[in-house]
Design brief:
Serine Threonine Protein Phosphatase 5, Tetratricopeptide repeat, 3 domains, about 200 residues, mainly alpha, about 75% helix
């Protein structure tokens, strides 16, 4: 552990400002300074104290989530950030922290959602584009992501119980197939767009 006086002067500046006014929002950069100094417990404590006064301060929530992530408390990161990105989906730091935490927890579909949002807001990022491709592939492989399985299942059931449906049923069948084909075309168009972001 670092000796007193060996921390960044910025930390002491934030600490003094926080001590002068414990109700100010300076708790967020102070928590971040503690985190960067490796004082994770202090960072978490300061962030939680500040959020007790400013519960809707997004910067404070993100500062807490960063410290929780570094501490390895990934489920707590998810709990903190899920409501944040629902309200502020363009907070890229929150999206990345949430995506990485879901990955560590093995929640592939949720991680994919965060990385897709990152790609939406920053389509020229080759690393995020690669992550989306890899996560999509893994999600389809392990069944976390499927193409309207409810529709496919319904079509199979109808085929097995009604091998020669009347004209009205055939029309309904045709409409379902058209919808399924439309979905497949959308997926192919999406994959083409993602492929365009692949680095040369």
């Amino acid at each position: 552990m670092k000796k007193p006086g060996s921390f960044s002067p910025v930390l002491y500046d934030y600490l003094k400002r926080y001590q002068d006014d414990p109700t100010s929002r300076v708790f967020a950069p102070l928590a971040e300074a503690y985190r960067k100094a490796g004082l994770l417990d202090e960072a978490i404590e300061i962030a939680r104290d500040g959020l007790a006064i400013h519960p809707h301060f997004v910067g404070g929530r993100v500062a807490l989530a960063r410290a929780l992530f570094d501490k390895g408390l990934y489920q707590e990161v998810v709990d903190e950030l899920t409501p944040i990105i629902a309200d502020v989906p363009d907070n890229l730091v929150a999206q990345r922290l949430l995506g990485d935490s879901c990955l560590v927890l093995g929640r592939i579909a949720e991680a994919l959602g965060s990385f897709k949002m990152l790609l939406y807001y920053n389509p020229s990022d080759p690393e995020v584009a690669r992550m989306v491709r890899e996560l999509e592939s893994k999600a389809y492989e392990n069944g976390a992501l499927v193409l309207r399985s409810d529709m496919v299942s319904a079509l199979h059931k109808q085929a097995s119980f009604d091998p020669e449906p009347p004209a009205q049923s055939r029309d309904a069948w045709a409409r379902k197939i058209e919808r399924l084909q439309g979905l497949l075309l959308k997926v192919e168009r999406y994959r083409s767009r993602v492929a365009a972001f692949r680095p040369a």
